[in-house]
Structure formats: structure tokens, C-alpha cells
Amino acid sequence: MIDFDILKEAGTTNERLRKILTCTDTENPDHKIREKIEDMVSSRMTEHVTYSLRNHQLYSAVDMAWDSSPINKTTMPLVLYAQKRIDMKSCAKALEGVKSLEQYAKRDESGKIVDIDLPKFFEVNVNLVRSFVTRRLAAQVNKYNNLYPFFKYESRTTGPVGKLRADALSQRMDIMADQFDYRHFQTQAIRDMFLYGHSVAFPRASWERDVQWTKSPVAEAFKTDGSFEGTIPKVSRVTKEGLGWITPHPSRLFWDNAYPLTSINTDSGANYCGFWDVVRYGDIADNPAFFNRDVVGFSDAKDSVFVTFSDYFTQHYTKITPASTIADPSAYNDRVNNVGRYSGKMADASVIVGEYYWKCNPNEFGIGDYPYPVWIHLKVAGDNTIIFAEIMPSTPAAVFSFNENDSRLLNLSVAHELMPYQDQLTNLMTQLLETAKADLFSVAVINSDIFPDTDEGAKVLEDFRNTMAGKNFYASTHVLEASFQKLRDLGIDPRSDNVFKVVRSSPSTALTTIFQSIQNLLATAERLMALSPQEQGQPAPRETSATEVTIINNTTESVYNFISESIDEGRAAMKRICYECLIAKGASEVYLPVVNRYTDDVIAKAGFRYVPDEDEAVSSVGTRRTIVGTTSNLVHDYIFTSRDGSERALNTMSAQNLIQLFQIITQSQILLPNIPKDKVFEIVNEIFRLLGATDLRLQAPPGQEGESLLEGAGGMSPEAIQQIAQAVQQNSQDIQQIAGVLQGGGAPPNQPLQ
After folding, report:
1. CB pairs under 8 A, 24+ apart, for 162-165?
2. pLDDT digits over 390-403, tens only?
3. Is residue 350 helix, strand or coil?
4. DSSP structural state of residue 323
5. Domain spans of the chain?
6. CA 392 to chain centre
7. What angle do CA 460, 461, 463 make, to 5 degrees?
8. pTM of the shown model
9. Rounded to an integer, what is the distance from CA 607 to the centroid of its chain?
């Protein structure tokens, strides 16, 4: 955890970084430092951006598989036209701007669309990726989003002071989780993990704070009727502060490839990481937080990526406007190597901006005298011009990974495993539909000789043709006119007693084969994903014994727990980042609700004070108390554990262990007289906290902390103590009576607790 006061004392500050990175005096030593940093960042950013664009297909293919649908903006107008719901002109208008229009459109010499060729086949897309990923996502999201508080901090020590700080910190983080919608963000991060194999969460900033004016609470400022004279008395109030998070698309992600991506979670490997994106230059020029805004450069080599990799930018961005395509003479007012500059006339020009997080030793780079590694956030725009620099309070990212292989740079995800099956299933479903349509094919043969060669006869024939055609596009009847007399003249016997005949295709046996192939394909995919029929909400294909169901459920649960462990690693990193950023950047004073199990003495030792609230319950147990202190009071001598998430249920096991310990103490003639009263109370308080039934705030009267339960004015008989032990073991809900016995001097011997 970074202490910014110590950094400031060592001269390692954001102001120092800005001074270095804006230095233009070539004789100044800071300029040499700037060149060193820029050269390093430029080399790495160019390498990683190029690599990302050359290898984006692995992730872009997943996006196409996820987004595919049976009817899209291309096929929908064609379907409507085929069903005669719109005319050719309307269909052509609806298809304007669609790249695939030319394969359907017929144009005259002037280029005007005069006809639409309907495609012979309509692809029936079955989105297996979206279906299976959503099931996996729902199973994990429901497990985590129902956790309250969202992040639970547990002290590694067993003392009440550490527990109070952990409880207060959990409450503070739950407020942050609500304000910044961590539950929704977590859902997106887990979904991306399933889709791409990993997702990396970056804080949007080192700290965010929203401030609003509110009316002054000073009563003297207002009259008795609530009115006031002159300017409204107001004060600034922080309405929201904390960390917001983003997950960049994995095709734009990069890190120090000398180390596994997951090493970022524990800050035990990678020395840099980040991502890049495309923004408008106007967004940079108008942001006062950025420096070097007027010297953001571009070159033809840099801008050429928009053309070279146009397939990527077309898929992921609405519009790309390279700076070099804008006729602006000032753009060639070169700074270095004939590199052009963006100008105010290029507000809409596209700029590649890299979010570069760098772990460095400030002392080695001349950024103050701080001798230990810190993370620095640099924004790099255009031709690698650094426009922003900030020291981070913690590590820069949290990694969520699925079945990550640390020895490989690229790993396959759930979606990657399913995509081949989705393609084959789409082919089979399309073939199934085409085969079914073929089986519905029919031809009506009409003897045209029966119709008079007159206008009235022609009208009757047309009416008959329209009647037989029907309205079903796929199973429409086609009318074929045939002269039976001419057929006889050709030596063909038309069976003159028939004037009308319907010829239908023979049913194909291929439908059964296709159905079986689809079932086998789905079964293979489900086995690959370890999905049971019960998990899918479907009945088992055969009678299943209770033992077999148990085995299936255990196997499924093992898979879920394995996935949860990966999510827990990402959550643990987020917890640590949130904690360290809060301590370093949070408001100096915090008001927090804590469960009323902590004594006034513990609250004071933790550095907090109790704030009375008129709405608080007056009961001595089971209530909540508001405490106030500073963020520094949340600092714990021992780091909080990362255990969270799927392991929270283990609290019950801890409670059972404490219950056994409590029994041993109460049944031992040696231990009981020598265990201080306050320690016994602490054990009982903790048991009920872990069980989640209610909370106790039992405390020894002043001066009796070191006494045993058998001594002093508050002493009690061994029989009463045994009754208490039995009640605790039975997880009694009558907490008030237990508290009364412990603090009120005991109950009459042999009188059971109710």
C-alpha cells in the first residue's frame, strides 16, 4: 500500500511526473528522462498495438458467434419481400448501405435497382455459444451477486479490534459497490471471462469523487418557517466516491509477456500492462487534465493501421476518421521526423490512445528519491505522445481467467470450445429446413385445353392459378399448364379422364438422419461442458437412481467450484485495490454502521467513536451502531484475508469449532476458573456472528474483565454455566436470555433456560 505523504516527502509526485514529461529544454536533465520514458513506452505500445491487430481474429470470431442471429438487417428485408409483404422498391431501399446488397440486387445500365434475386437458401443460425455461456454465467452470477456485503473483509487476527476494522471496511465497500454498481460490472467481467478466456478489470481512475452543494445544516441560517434572506446558505457534500471499473475488449489488451497475465493479481510478475482504444482528438483537446495536447502527433505509418486492419475497425467501431485524410497544412508543422500534429480542425479525427500502466522504481528514473517500486498510469496518444501521468495507489488491474494456462499467451475459452459445434449445428439445421421444404414441393398440372381461348377463359385460368398458389412461401403450389391433346400427339398418354393433377415429391429419409445428427451433436457439446439434463431443467433421458443423481450433482458442483476459484482470484485483487485506494484517496472522515457486538472500549481502541442516533434501537443486543473515524483507522497491522465469495459458507464450520472450544472450557475444572470473563464473552459473541443468527454485545463490567465467570459479584454457579453451554450448542435463538444470564449474575441452579 502506497503512502502518498511519504512519496511527497521523497519528491515522487504527480507534479514531478508532469514536469518531466512536459520538459522541452534539451539542456535540462529532465528532458533526458522524458526521452528515456517516451522511447520505452513508444516501443512497447507500437509492438503491442500491431500484435493486437494482427491476432484479433481469435476474439473477433467470438463476437460474431455471440451476436449472430437468424434474422438480421440483411435478411429481414429479403424475408419480407419473399413473403410479398413489401415490394421490390421498398426492399432495395431497406438494403441500402448493406455491403452484401450486390449479391441480391439487379441493376440497369444507370445503376438503378430493378429487381431483387432472393437467395436460394436461408441460413438457420442456432446460437449455441450464447445459450451455454448464459447458463454458466447465471450459475456463477447468482452465487456472487447475492452476497452481502459485496466484499467481506476478514482480519487475519482474532482480536476484536481487527474484527471491528474488517466489519467497518466491509460496510464501506458495500456502499461503494452500490454506488458504482459492482454487481452489474462483475456480471460483465464474468461473461467476458467465459467468452474470451479472461477479462481484466481496470479502475477508470485512481479515485472518483462526486460533489454537490446542499443547504447548510446550520439552524441559525434559516428562519422558523424555513425561509432565508440573501444567498442560500450551502455547503459542499460528497455524494459519491470510490472506484469505477472497466473491462477493455481482450483484442486491445496487452501486458508484460515475460510473465503470466494472472501475476498482475498478486503483483508478483508483470512490470507493465494496459489496453488501447480509439477516441476523437477533440476529446483530448478539450480535457484540461491532459498535457501536451497541442503536440499530439500522427504519421502515415501510424494512421495506416486504420486501412491495413479495416476489417477489425469496421467490426468494433462505428466510424474511423484518420488524421492524415484531413487536408490541414498545420498538420505538417512537424516536431520530430516529419510527424504531423493534430489541430483544432481535426476534432473528429480518430486517435489511438493507450492506457499504459508501468511498474517502476522512481529513484532509478529520477522521479524523486523513493527507492521502491510503484505503479504509474500513463496515457499515450497518437504517435506515442504522453498526455497524462499519475501514480497509482495500488496495482492497476484485476484478472478474471478461466482455465488459464500460464505457459501460453493465448488460451481457449468456453465460447471457443463451443464455436465448432455451433457452426455444425447451424449447417444441420439449415439442411433440415431445406430438406423439409423439398418434401413439401408440389406441382399442379392443369389441362389448358378445357379453358376457352377467350378473355373469359384466360381470366378463369388466372383465378384458378391464384387459388392454387396459396400464401405459404415455402410450401407454395406452382401451377403448370399442359395441353393433353398435344401430349397425345407426341405419343404420350395423359389419361384424358384427368384434367387436373397434383404431383408431390417423395418424403425423404434424410430428415431422420439429420435429426439424429443434431441430437448427437448437442449431446457431445453438453458432455464437453459437463451439463446434466437436471442442470438444464430437463428430465433425464431414462430412469435415474438417487445415487446417480447425487454423483451427477457432485460432479456439476465440482465444475462450478473450479470456476468459482478463478473468479475468487479476480475478486480478491479487486478487494485489495479498493482497500488500498480507499486508504490513500478516500475522504478523511467516514461514518459507518457496524453491528452492535463491539464494546465501547473496542471502538475506542480501533480509533473510532460512537455516534448516537435517535432512530437507533435501545436494546443492548442485536442492534446496529454508527461509528465515525478516519480512513487511517481502517488500516490494519495485518492484511485482511482474501478468502471470500464461494468460501463464505465455511463460517458455519468455524462456528462449530468455537462451540466445541466453548464446551471444553465450560467442562474443564482447570480451564474455566482461569479463563478471563471478557474472553469467554468474546467467544460467545463470535459464535453467534458466524452462525448469522443475531449479534451479541456481551462485555464484562468495568473492573471485572480479568475475572472468571465463577468470581466476583457477577459470578455464577457451574450448573448455570453448563446450561449456557448447552444453549449455545443447540444454536438457541433466545439471545436475550443468554445475555441476561451472563451479565445479570446467573440463573438459579438447575433451572433450565427457556
Report:
1. 162/636, 162/637, 162/638, 163/598, 163/686, 164/594, 164/598, 164/602, 164/603, 164/606, 164/608, 165/606, 165/633, 165/634, 165/635, 165/636
2. 999 999 999 999 88
3. strand
4. G
5. 14-28+30-54+268-394, 71-116, 208-242, 645-743
6. 22
7. 65
8. 0.76
9. 36
